[in-house]
Specification:
- By secondary structure, the protein is mainly alpha-helical.
- Among the domains are: 80 residues, no CATH class; 126 residues, no CATH class.
- The chain is built from 22 helices and no strands.
- The longest helix is centred in the middle third of the chain and has 22 residues.
- The radius of gyration is 29 Å and the shape is elongated.
Length: 369
């Protein structure tokens, strides 16, 4: 700190003591303005000790000023990366959204713990401010999705800097059922894992079919066919395949061509929660297109998965790992493993092959229809 700014700081601290002891509200607000000016003029050069001093000063003044002055302080400090951290935290936790919003939406001084604490305890307006930040971690978006209203969730999904966990995507897909706008926003995210994308498509299709059939009963058959075609196109659209999915498919193709793909590799993919790799591997071993396997894998019932596994000659332990992976990733109700095991043991390979031929025919007939 230069001697000039140190002298100004010393004079201002003397004035601060007098203001806090005897000053009017107007004088306190003026002192706050001058302290803020002093801080902003040298913010780049201040060390931790000077910033801590300003923290003390700001916190003393904030106890004795009205909300409009605190809101102005928040506006001025929010974009400053070296802003006093305790002051920023106090502003973020203020019940008045005019005070909290600027720092919640901008300040780099707020870590995930502070954002999560605010999101768990404050108003929807506070959550909305957080949802607009330049970047959001999966830990923060988990809370926004869990506590946020529809507007907060849409704002979070539309934020290109937001990241989502597996659990977050599962909750989003569940919330999107019956909300076509939200489903569209989720589906347009380039980073959505493919298994969540497929579940989203399946749910949206069922919702659209139910709504349109209810509105136009005589056209129910046409509506059903239209929905199936829309689903097929969505699944085959380039935008539905993320870069990660393409890499996973290439890896499995390489393993298959080298003769290194077997059920042990499928089990390893499943146990690691790698849906794209596991799905592509099952498709390769069952000699069906990946799209056919995907359709059967994301069905709410497990029969499709059991058919693919039976045709591939997999043991029950591998099938069990695949079912567990699918249920875990899709946030579906857990399958009854004992019932699945009994069904799998009764299922004949010849029957499974016959059903699989039917699925292949459906896939081939869809474009022609």
């Amino acid at each position: 700190m230069s001697s000039k700014s140190a002298h100004a700081s010393s004079d201002l601290l003397d004035e601060l003591q007098t203001t806090l002891a005897h000053g009017t509200v107007a004088r306190r607000v003026e002192t706050l303005r001058r302290v803020t000016d002093l801080f902003l003029n040298g913010a780049v050069d201040y060390g931790d000790e000077q910033i801590a001093l300003f923290d003390d000063v700001f916190n003393c003044l904030m106890r004795h000023i009205e909300a409009s002055a605190k809101a102005l302080l928040a506006d001025r400090l929010a974009p400053v990366s070296t802003a006093p951290p305790l002051t920023i935290r106090a502003l973020a936790f203020d019940d008045l959204i005019d005070v909290a919003a600027p720092v919640l939406s901008q300040s780099e001084r707020l870590d995930d713990d502070a954002l999560i604490e605010t999101a768990r305890n404050k108003s929807q307006a506070h959550l909305m401010a957080i949802s607009t930040r330049k970047s959001l971690s999966g830990a923060v978006t988990d809370v926004l999705i869990l506590r946020g209203d529809d507007d907060v969730v849409r704002s979070t999904v539309n934020n290109p800097g937001a990241q989502f966990t597996e659990r977050g995507y599962g909750r989003l897909v569940a919330r999107a059922e019956g909300d076509d706008n939200l489903a569209t926003c989720i589906g347009l995210r380039p980073s959505i894992p493919r298994h969540h994308y497929l579940k989203l498509i399946a749910k949206a299709s069922a919702t659209v079919r139910a709504r349109l059939e209810a509105a136009h009963p005589p056209l129910a058959g046409d509506v059903s066919a239209a929905v199936k075609e829309a689903t097929r196109r969505a699944r085959s659209a380039p935008s539905a395949i993320t870069r990660e999915t393409a890499i996973a498919h290439a890896l499995v193709k390489s393993l298959y061509e080298d003769g290194r793909l077997d059920e042990h590799q499928v089990a390893a993919f499943a146990q690691a929660g790698r849906f794209d790799e596991a799905n592509a591997a099952i498709a390769a071993l069952a000699s069906v297109p990946i799209a056919v396997a995907e359709t059967m894998m994301v069905e709410s019932r497990s029969e499709g998965l059991l058919i693919l596994a039976k045709v591939s000659g997999m043991s029950w332990s591998t099938v069990k790992a695949i079912i567990n992976m699918r249920d875990e990733l899709s946030s579906m109700d857990r399958a009854n493993l004992e019932a699945c095991r009994q069904t799998y043991e009764r299922l004949r390979t010849s029957t499974a092959q016959q059903v699989l031929r039917f699925h292949r025919m459906q896939q081939t007939a869809a474009p022609a229809a």
